[in-house]
Amino acid sequence: MSDEQDPAGGAAQPDKPEGPAASGSEAPDSATGEPAREEPPRLAARGLDRPAADPAEAAVFGRPGGVDGTFSARGGSNGRRSPSAAPPTAALAGAFGRPGAAAPDLQRPPAGARERLPDDDAFWDGNGKGHEDPWRRPETAVELGPPPEDDAAPAPEPTPGPRLSVREVLFGRRVEPRALAVLGVIALLIGAVGGLVGRYTVEGANSLTDPGATLTSTTDAKERPPGSVADIASRVLPAVVSLDIKVGDQGGTGSGVVIDPAGYILTNNHVVAPAAAAQGSTIQAVFNDGSRAAASIVGRDPKTDLAVVKVAVRNPTVARIGSTKDLAVGDAVIAIGSPLGLVGTVTTGIVSALDRPVRLDGEGNDVAVIDAVQTDAAINPGNSGGALVDSTGAVVGINTAIRSLGGQGSQDQGGSIGLGFAIPIDTARTIGEELIRTGKVTHADLGVNVRSVTDGSADGAQVQNVVAGGAAAAAGILEGDVIVKVGDREIAGADEMIVAVREKNPGDVVPIQLVRDGRPLTVTATLASD
């Protein structure tokens, strides 16, 4: 059949069959004698409806004259030949060229083909039909297949093997002797390395505890400049001793201060008084370095609560003596002694008050009154007789009494509440020197007994009685007079009048101001000796 178009653009009509077949009659088959089947008529291609071309467009886009196909062997209308492409290489032709005539045909054979394919064909069976594999049949409908099956067999669980004993390993010939030897060498090497490491570790640790080890010297971790509490304590402690008093099977403890290179120690009278009145009593001085020495009483003064004892010690450390006149309220002070038997105790505080009259427990009829330095440095029983030093390390007082909630006095057993009293060193030095020289001390005496009074606007000491032949009687002082001033010192009570008189010496002429019947009066008294 030819499907070429005619020049008018219509579709070419199919060739009409000739002979009997064309007329639709069945002609007999020459081989079988049976009439032949008439073939159905074939449809021709429908003609294309093409509109007439525009002459202007045809002149521009139409085929040149003499050209019937799409391409011409020659170039354009100018007559030049177009360059042709180079022939492909052998590799490209072999890869992408058409197969030769002897190559097998990959096209599916037509249905009803009479030639038989080999039985071992991988794609087609002997009947010209594809295998029943749905992947080989394009007309097979899409459907879900069964889940995949794990064809791999599960791995068997490992079972523990037989264990070998040491005997079987060594003598059962289960392990090669060479392997045993190598294993032994490795164990020996590991043990040797561990031993060396342990040895060096122990030697390094022993070097820190070895008595022969020396540590590098370093600077002091604390700064102790001159004048610090530590510096003052280191200089004063060797001059302060602890006094152990034993009377029979009883004992007591006090403190003392070395005031002379000959071994004289200044302390309180109430510290050594029990040993002075009892036979067979002993006094021992314990120095800061722990050494001990027997002490003997040189002299005592119950009215000022001072005493001096002496020890046979060569070149003892002597305390530096200061002056109470240089003190002011608020100055820093340090108390050193043996409170509660604790030797070499140091406490600090300030001067709380000056010229504080304090009445102490005296002996017999003697009244002990001191013009004390008050301090808030901790002072407890056992501090009595110890040193109160200033910021330069000089002794400015002898610690004597404390004020506690239980009462007042040197023998009070209450604890410190920050009210301590010390005898001014100026008074203590005078009394100490007199005791060393003569063993006793005499005091100035006015010859009166007084009590403290006030009228709401003024205070004073009222005379209760006048001793006949005494200094007061000679001066014209009468009972009922109120003494308000002795010398230059104002009198606010009985204790202050006593200490004001004892500051003077026997024979001193002292003006005394008093109030008699509401009128001020001044008399002159020549102090006698007690």
Automatic annotation (TrEMBL):
Residues 1-163, 207-227 are annotated as: Disordered. Residues 207-219 have a biased composition (Polar residues). Belongs to the peptidase S1C family. This is Trypsin-like peptidase domain-containing protein. The lineage of its organism: Bacteria, Bacillati, Actinomycetota, Actinomycetes, Pseudonocardiales. It comes from Pseudonocardia ailaonensis. Residues 35-52, 128-140 have a biased composition (Basic and acidic residues). SUPFAM superfamilies: PDZ domain-like, Trypsin-like serine proteases. It holds the Pfam family Trypsin_2. The chain crosses the membrane at residues 179-198. Keywords: Hydrolase, Membrane, Protease, Transmembrane, Transmembrane helix. Residues 435-518 form the PDZ domain. Residues 83-103 have a biased composition (Low complexity).
